[in-house]
C-alpha cells in the first residue's frame, strides 16, 4: 500500500479543531439562527463547530453550505466569522482531494485574517495550506508554511495547535527519511493528548502515524499494536476518514504478516466506509488490498477485477502510488494466469512508474540537502554578524568610558589649578605684608636714636606696633585656617569626583535608551529650521511687519519650550504632541508664505489626553511632507491633512499631502537627503517600542499616492495604545 498517501490524509485532519466532535447541535437550525439573528459570538462559535463536524462526514456537502454562509457573513460585516468560514472551506476542499484549490482558498483566508487582525485563526489556516502543499510534493514550501504557523501558535501560547502542527511536520520529516525526529514529535504529541479526553481523535491520529513509521521500518507487529490503540479511542467511529485509514493500515499490516483472514476483514471495513464517503482514492487502496487477498485464495477473476478498477481510479485521480501498486498486482495476476502479453504490459507500466517515483525521491533528497545547506549557511552568517555586533558594542562602551574619564580628569585638573592660583595669591599677600613689617621695624630702629623729646610719640608708635603685630598674627592664623580648609576641600572634591564617575557609568547605561530621543530632538530642532525661522523674522522686521515678526517669535518660543519639556520624558501625552505639531505646522505655513493649506483632524470621541506616545515622532513626517512635497508644488491647492484615529489596540496617525510625490521629490528637491535623519529616528524608536510592547507591534510606512493614481504621499504611523496613569 502507498505509504505516503496513508500518512498524509491522516495528518491533514489535525488542521481542524477537533473539539467540534463533541458538538450535538442541529446544523440546519444553527444556520437558520445565524442567518436571521444579529451577530453573536456564541451563535457563530456553535455554527463553526457544527460545520467542522459536518466536514468530516460530508466534505462535498459542507463546501456548498460554507459558500452560502460566507456571503451572509460578509453582508453582516462579521469579519471573524468570514475568516473562520474561509478556513473551513479550505479544509473541505482538502478532504475532497482538491489540493490545488485548497491551497488557493487557504491563502485567501490567511490574507483575510491579516486584514481583519484575526490572529487566532492564522496557525490553523497555515496548517491546512501546508498539508495541501505536501500533497502536491511542494516540500520546501510546505515546511516554510507549517513553521510559520508554528511560530504564530507559539507566540499565542496555543498548546493544542502547536502539537497539531507538529503532527503535520511529521509528514515532511518522514519523506526526508528522518525517522528519529518523526518519532520524537509523535511520542511528544501522544503524551500531550493522552491527558485530554476531548482530543481522543487527535490521539488516535498520532497512534496511526506512529504505526506507519514502524511499518516503514518493517516492524509490523509494533505497527499493528499502535493501530489497535488508535482504533480504541473514543469517537473514532464518527470520523469516517480517519476510521477508513486505520482499517486500511491494519489490512496492510496483517497482509505483511500473512494473516490473510484478518487482512480481508479490515480491507473490507475500509472499503465499506470509502464507498459511503465517496473517497475514490482511498477506495482504490482498499481494492488493491482485497485483490491481493482474492489472489492468495485463488479467486483470480475477482482479484483481476478489483486491481483493474484500482488502476483506472489511479489514472483518473493522477496518483502515481495507486497506479504503481495496482500495476504490480495485475502483473502478478497475469503471470500466474499465463498471459504473458498482459503481464509484460503492466511490467512496463510499473517500470515507468517506478522511475517516476525514483525521480521524485531523488528530488526530495536534493530538496532536503539544499534545505540543510541553506539553514547551515544562514546560521553561520548569523553567528558571524552577532560576533561583529558584540565587538562593535564593546568597543563603543570602552570609548564612552574613556571619554567620560578624560572629561572628569580635565575637570579635576581645572579645579586643582584654581586652588593653586588662589594659594599663590595668598602667598603673595603674605610676602607683601612681611615686607611692610620689615620696613616698619627698620624705621622704628632709626627713631630710637633720636632725641628723648620724642618719647611720647615713640610710646604711641609702640602702641601702634602692638596692634599691627596683633593684626598680623590674626592674619597668619586666618591663613593657616584657610590652608587647612582648602586641604579638606580637596579631599571633598576627590570624593565628589568618584561619585560623579559612578553617575557617569549609570548615564552610560541610559545612553542606549535615550539615543533615539536625542536623534528626534536633533531632527526637530535642527539648525536649518532655526536659522530659517530667524531669517523669516528678520525679513518681517525689515519689511516693516512687526506684528508678523512678533507672532512668529512667540510661536517659535512656545514651540521650543514645549519640545524641550517633552524631550525630558520617555512618554508624553498625545494631546501635548498634537499641540506641538500644530504650532510647528503653523510656523512653516507662515514661513512659506501660506503656500499650502493644512488641517488637523481628531476622530470623534477620541480623548488625546488619555494616551501616551514617545515624544517627537510625528514632526519629521510633517517636515518631510512640507519640504519635499508641498514646498515645490507648482499648482495651486496644495494641502496637508493630519489625522489621528484609534483601533482596538493601536493609535493610527496619518500625514497626507497632495504634493509632488515620493519619486518627484527625490528628483526635484534641492539637497534632497537619500536617508532622512528624522525618519531613521522614528524607525529606531519603533524598534524600542516593539521590544517594550511585543504583543502590540508598532509600525511605520510611507505610501506613494502615485500608485493609486493620485498626487502626494501618505505617511502612516501605527503605535500601541498606552494609557495615561491617573
Brief account:
The chain is built from 25 helices and 8 strands. The protein is mainly α.
By secondary-structure content and strand pairing, the structural class works out as mainly alpha
Provide the helix percentage: over 70%
Point out poorly predicted stretches: 1-25, 373-380, 518-524
Distance between the amino and carboxyl termini: 69 Å
Shape: elongated
Largest sheet: 5 strands, mixed
The count of strands amounts to 8
CATH class of the largest domain: Mainly Alpha
CATH homologous superfamily classification of the largest domain: Tetratricopeptide repeat domain
Walk me through this protein's architecture:
With 726 residues, the protein is mainly alpha-helical. The protein has three domains: 1-232, Serine Threonine Protein Phosphatase 5, Tetratricopeptide repeat, CATH 1.25.40; 381-448 and 457-508; 525-723, Histidine kinase-like ATPase, C-terminal domain (Heat Shock Protein 90, 2-Layer Sandwich). 74% of the residues lie in helices and 6% in strands. The strands form two sheets. A five-stranded mixed sheet has the order 2-4-5-7-6, covered by helices on one side. Strands 1-3-8 form a three-stranded antiparallel sheet. Helix 20 (527-542) runs antiparallel to helix 21. The longest helix is centred in the middle third of the chain and has 109 residues, at 340-448. It is elongated. The model is unreliable at 1-25, 373-380 and 518-524 (pLDDT under 50).
Amino acid at each position: 500500500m502507498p505509504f505516503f498517501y496513508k500518512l498524509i490524509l491522516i495528518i491533514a485532519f489535525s488542521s481542524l479543531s477537533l473539539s467540534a466532535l463533541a458538538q450535538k447541535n442541529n446544523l440546519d437550525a444553527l444556520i437558520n439562527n445565524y442567518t436571521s439573528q444579529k451577530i453573536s459570538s456564541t451563535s457563530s462559535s456553535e455554527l463553526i463547530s457544527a460545520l467542522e463536524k459536518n466536514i468530516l462526514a460530508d466534505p462535498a456537502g459542507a463546501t456548498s453550505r460554507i459558500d452560502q454562509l460566507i456571503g451572509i457573513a460578509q453582508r453582516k460585516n462579521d469579519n471573524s466569522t468570514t475568516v473562520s468560514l474561509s478556513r473551513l472551506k479550505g479544509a473541505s476542499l482538502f478532504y475532497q482531494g482538491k489540493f490545488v484549490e485548497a491551497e488557493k482558498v487557504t491563502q485567501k483566508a490567511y490574507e483575510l485574517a491579516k486584514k481583519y487582525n484575526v490572529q487566532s485563526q492564522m496557525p490553523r489556516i497555515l496548517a491546512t495550506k501546508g498539508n495541501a502543499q505536501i500533497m502536491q510534493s511542494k516540500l520546501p514550501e510546505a515546511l516554510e508554511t507549517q513553521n510559520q504557523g508554528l511560530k504564530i501558535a507559539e507566540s499565542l501560547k496555543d498548546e493544542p495547535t502547536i502539537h497539531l502542527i507538529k503532527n503535520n511536520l511529521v509528514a515532511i520529516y518522514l519523506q526526508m527519511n528522518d525517522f528519529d525526529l518523526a518519532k520524537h514529535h509523535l511520542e511528544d504529541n501522544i503524551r500531550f493528548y493522552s491527558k485530554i479526553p476531548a482530543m481522543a481523535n487527535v490521539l488516535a491520529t498520532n497512534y496511526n502515524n506512529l504505526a506507519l513509521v514502524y511499518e516503514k521500518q518493517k516492524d509490523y507487529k509494533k505497527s499493528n499494536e499502535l493501530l489497535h490503540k488508535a482504533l480504541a479511542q473514543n469517537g473514532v467511529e464518527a470520523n469516517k476518514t480517519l476510521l477508513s485509514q486505520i482499517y486500511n493500515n491494519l489490512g496492510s499490516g496483517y497482509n505483511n504478516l500473512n494473516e490473510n483472514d484478518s487482512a480481508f476483514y479490515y480491507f473490507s471495513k475500509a472499503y465499506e466506509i470509502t464507498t459511503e464517503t465517496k473517497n475514490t482514492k482511498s477506495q482504490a487502496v482498499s481494492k488493491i488490498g482485497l485483490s491481493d487477498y482474492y489472489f492468495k485464495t485463488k479467486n483470480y477473476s475477482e482479484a483481476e477485477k478489483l486491481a483493474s478498477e484500482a488502476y483506472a481510479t489511479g489514472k483518473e485521480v493522477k496518483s502515481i502510488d495507486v497506479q504503481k501498486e495496482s500495476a504490480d498486482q495485475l502483473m502478478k495476476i497475469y503471470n500466474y494466469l499465463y498471459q504473458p502479453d498482459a503481464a509484460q504490459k503492466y511490467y512496463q507500466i510499473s517500470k515507468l512508474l517506478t522511475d517516476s517515483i525514483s525521480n521524485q525521491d531523488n528530488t526530495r533528497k536534493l530538496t532536503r540537502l539544499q534545505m540543510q545547506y541553506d539553514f547551515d549557511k544562514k546560521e553561520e552568517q548569523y553567528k558571524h554578524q552577532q560576533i561583529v555586533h558584540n565587538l562593535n558594542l564593546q568597543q563603543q562602551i570602552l570609548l564612552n568610558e574613556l571619554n567620560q574619564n578624560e572629561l572628569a580628569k580635565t575637570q579635576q585638573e581645572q579645579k586643582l589649578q584654581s586652588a593653586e592660583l588662589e594659594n599663590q595669591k595668598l602667598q603673595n599677600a603674605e610676602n607683601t605684608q612681611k615686607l611692610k613689617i620689615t620696613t616698619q621695624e627698620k624705621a622704628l630702629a632709626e627713631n630710637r636714636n633720636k632725641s628723648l623729646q620724642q618719647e611720647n610719640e615713640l610710646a604711641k608708635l609702640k602702641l601702634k606696633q602692638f596692634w599691627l603685630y596683633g593684626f598680623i598674627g590674626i592674619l597668619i592664623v586666618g591663613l593657616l585656617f584657610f590652608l587647612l580648609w582648602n586641604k579638606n576641600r580637596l579631599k571633598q572634591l576627590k570624593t565628589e569626583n568618584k561619585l560623579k564617575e559612578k553617575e557617569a557609568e549609570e548615564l552610560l547605561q541610559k545612553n542606549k535608551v535615550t539615543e533615539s530621543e536625542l536623534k528626534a530632538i536633533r531632527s526637530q530642532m535642527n539648525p536649518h529650521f532655526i536659522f530659517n525661522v530667524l531669517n523669516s523674522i528678520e525679513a518681517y522686521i525689515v519689511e516693516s511687519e512687526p506684528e508678523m515678526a512678533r507672532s512668529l517669535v512667540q510661536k517659535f518660543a512656545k514651540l521650543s519650550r514645549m519640545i524641550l519639556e517633552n524631550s525630558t520624558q520617555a512618554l508624553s501625552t498625545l494631546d501635548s504632541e498634537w499641540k506641538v505639531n500644530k504650532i510647528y505646522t503653523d510656523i512653516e505655513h507662515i514661513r512659506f508664505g501660506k503656500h499650502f493649506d493644512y488641517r488637523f483632524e481628531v476622530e470623534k470621541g477620541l480623548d488625546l489626553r488619555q494616551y501616551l506616545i514617545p515624544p517627537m515622532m510625528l514632526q519629521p513626517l510633517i517636515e518631510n511632507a512640507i519640504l519635499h512635497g508641498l514646498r515645490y508644488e507648482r499648482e495651486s491647492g496644495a494641502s496637508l491633512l493630519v489625522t489621528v484615529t484609534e483601533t482596538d489596540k493601536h493609535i493610527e496617525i496619518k500625514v497626507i499631502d497632495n504634493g509632488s510625490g515620493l519619486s518627484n521629490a527625490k528628483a526635484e528637491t534641492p539637497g534632497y537627503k537619500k536617508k532622512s535623519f528624522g525618519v531613521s529616528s522614528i524607525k529606531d524608536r519603533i524598534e524600542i517600542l516593539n521590544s517594550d510592547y511585543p504583543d502590540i507591534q508598532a509600525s511605520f510606512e510611507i505610501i506613494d499616492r502615485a500608485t493609486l493614481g493620485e498626487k502626494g504621499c501618505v505617511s502612516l504611523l501605527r503605535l500601541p495604545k498606552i494609557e495615561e496613569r491617573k
